[in-house]
Amino acid sequence: YTLLFFGKGSPKYFWKALVEGAGLLETIAPPPCYVGTLLCFFFFCCSARVGMEASEGHTYATGPNMLYHAVVNEDEPRAIAVLQELRAGGDQYKEVLEENVHYCNRLASHKTRTAVHFAAEQGMGRDLLLLLRASGADMDKVDARGWSPLLLAAFRGHAETVAVLARECECDVHRAHPRAGSATQMAAKKKNAEMVALLSELMTDHATE
User: Fold this and answer.
1) Chain segment 85-107, per-residue pLDDT in tens
2) CA 129, CA 19: separation in Å to the nearest integer?
3) Tens digits of per-residue pLDDT, 92-149?
């Protein structure tokens, strides 16, 4: 298309020069360029939009998967920055914020997981988890396979993440996975004494509330 639109002559003569050597001049009609023109215009508009957003000082791309990429790549500072910038964007980025919090898993194999599930599984820290909660995330959602964020964190052995989810995000420490069992049972199978002790303490605290 670069040659078509910026080369010498019209598209008709470009096509003529292209096929003349192959002896197809008399049998092939010049193709319409309308589709190519529309595609070029579309990509030009997309590039212009990205450039405008970059010039405004934003460091993120406006899409529903940016938070997912930051979390699964264990880039916690980036994930926090994404959420902070989206929250600071006000109504302009309200829909994008909701998509990142609730539907950031569109590129993942587990289609019903949210940003919280991935953050918990990766053992992300308190700042990100509380920011997710403040952004409206369901901190105790169970995905289609029966995993809650707390269960994922316990299964992976992330004690600090489990503590934050239970104590500050009010996640259910008694919930059990249909096959893997409760968080305590999973920790016991993995012989993770620290996790078993933490979960016992959390369940005791929950019972006394």
Assistant:
1) 888 888 878 888 887 777 655 54
2) 61
3) 788 888 877 776 555 445 667 888 998 999 999 999 999 999 988 899 999 888 999 9
Contacts within 8 Å (CB) and 24+ apart, 37-40: 39/1, 40/1, 40/5
The closest of 93, 121, 97 to 109, measured between CA atoms, is 121
Gap between the Cα atoms of 206 and 209, Å rounded: 5
Residue pair 1/36 in contact (Cβ under 8 Å)? The answer is yes
Q: How many CA atoms lie within 13 A of 182 on its CB side?
A: 12
3-state secondary structure 102-166: HHCCCCCCCCCCCHHHHHHHHCCCHHHHHHHHHCCCCCCCCCCCCCCHHHHHHHHCCHHHHHHHH
CA distances from 148 to 1, 144, 174 (A): 50, 10, 11
Compute CA 207 distance to the chain's CA centroid, rounded to the nearest angstrom: 35
182, containing H or E segment: strand 181-182
Max alpha carbon distance in the chain (Å)? Answer: 89
Q: What six digits make up the tokens of 49? A: 């939009």
> Across-strand partners of 181?
177
